[in-house]
């Protein structure tokens, strides 16, 4: 019922209609939410709206992808890759920059990242050629990497991508691991699904390893 | 748990951080959604982003409120008020421009509108002085209006506003009605709440009135 309603929707001005269309291109935003955003922008002061528009333009003009890890950055090489205290021999492979932020927030990883820009998903038409797999292999070929940590989602697509990359880098004989799957900290066992619980038993960790040394 | 996480959030660039902050000011958008929007904008072409920024600026610079009905418009007097086939003697009072669009879509109202810009809500600090009630009274004082249709939400705040406006315009001795509350078309009686069902019996409509003449 929603679609025909908005096809007919008579915005009081072409300018409103255009702004609604621009906002509704954002992920998860329909015409109704877009209109709500537009009404909100209309209530703002002129300099606030100018600041918003400027932030958008600067985003596009000043942000590029780090040439080494494909994280977004305002420099050619991002701050993480540029930091001499980070171990370039240990590379964590992630889906996108949000994962970099999440892992950075743990404060426990001192290596570098490699942002794939997605995971293999035939349903969405994303194949290995759309990702930065070749660049990862090139990095390994240059003998720069000793260990790869795969930190992709625990989904079918994530596992497929894990396997594809594993096959690609197997010839180089370096350590490849995935992040541990298991019961989340604070979770009750009875609510965990069988696969997760099964894996957490299969890949149990010696208690002595978990003690703070 | 979410807030401290994002307080610590380490965006890889100040430009990203600024854009996330701008997007997160939109209603219902948190930092996580804002970051999703930012990543989406980054993937767009430069001219698409420029068009988005331009739409925002034009929105603020070219859109004003109609001097007669306070609907948004790109002219001083909006197309509805300017339309000679619309009956200026019948005025429908609504909360905001989204309600104008919704009523316009029915195609059944041929009068003009008066947009209040909100409803009385002490909780949100919105009093009668924040609304365009005075302008409505002025319109009535100029003998331009014969009938007022209150089309405000069927909430406590809506009813309060109805009553306030009714008291204000009672001295002018014009017809004041509210839109009918009742069972929505297509709804089953058993799922309707008591108040709505009670009202729909109390304010029943002669069947002969509903026949197409």
Task: Give the topology.
2 copies of one chain form a homodimer.
Chain A: H1 2-8, H2 14-23, H3 31-43, H4 46-62, E1 64-65, E2 72-73, H5 79-82, E3 87-94, H6 97-106, E4 111-115, H7 133-141, E5 147-151, H8 156-169, E6 175-178, H9 194-202, H10 207-210
Parallel strand pairs in A: 3-4, 3-5, 5-6
Antiparallel strand pairs in A: 1-2
Helix pairs in contact in A: 2-3
Outline:
2 copies of one chain form a homodimer. Chain A is α/β, with parallel strands linked by helices and 213 residues long.
- Low-confidence sequence ranges of chain A: 1-8
CATH top level label of the largest domain in chain A? Alpha Beta
Hey, roughly how much beta strand do the residues of chain A contain? 5-15%
Overall average pLDDT of chain A: 86
Gross morphology of chain A? globular
Head-to-tail CA distance between termini of chain A: 62 Å
Largest interface: A-B, 57 and 57 residues
The CATH topology annotation of the largest domain in chain A reads as Dna Topoisomerase Vi A Subunit, Chain: A, domain 2
Q: Biggest sheet of chain A: strands side by side, in what order?
A: 4-3-5-6
Please report the number of helical segments of chain A: 10
Q: What fraction, in percent, of the residue positions of chain A are helical?
A: 40-55%
Please give the radius of gyration of chain A in angstroms. 23 Å
Total number of beta strands of chain A: 6
């Amino acid at each position: 019922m929603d679609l025909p309603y908005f096809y007919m929707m008579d915005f009081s001005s072409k300018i409103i209609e255009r702004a609604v269309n621009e906002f509704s291109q954002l992920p998860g935003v329909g015409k109704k939410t877009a209109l709500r955003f537009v009404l909100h922008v209309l209530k703002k002061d002129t300099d606030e709206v100018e600041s918003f528009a400027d932030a958008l333009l600067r985003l596009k003009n000043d942000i590029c992808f780090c040439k080494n890890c494909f994280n977004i950055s305002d420099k050619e090489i991002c701050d993480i890759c540029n930091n001499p205290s980070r171990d370039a021999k240990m590379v964590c492979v992630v889906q996108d920059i949000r994962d970099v932020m999440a892992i950075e927030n743990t404060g426990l990883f001192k290596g570098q990242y490699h942002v794939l820009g997605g995971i293999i998903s035939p349903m969405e038409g994303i194949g290995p050629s759309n990702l930065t797999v070749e660049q990862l292999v090139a990095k390994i070929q240059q003998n720069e990497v000793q260990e790869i940590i795969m930190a992709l989602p625990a989904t079918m697509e994530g596992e497929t991508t894990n396997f594809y990359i594993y096959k690609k880098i197997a010839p180089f004989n370096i350590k490849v691991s995935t992040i541990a799957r298991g019961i989340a900290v604070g979770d009750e066992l009875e609510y965990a699904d069988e696969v997760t619980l099964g894996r957490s038993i299969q890949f149990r960790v010696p208690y002595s390893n978990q003690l703070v040394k």
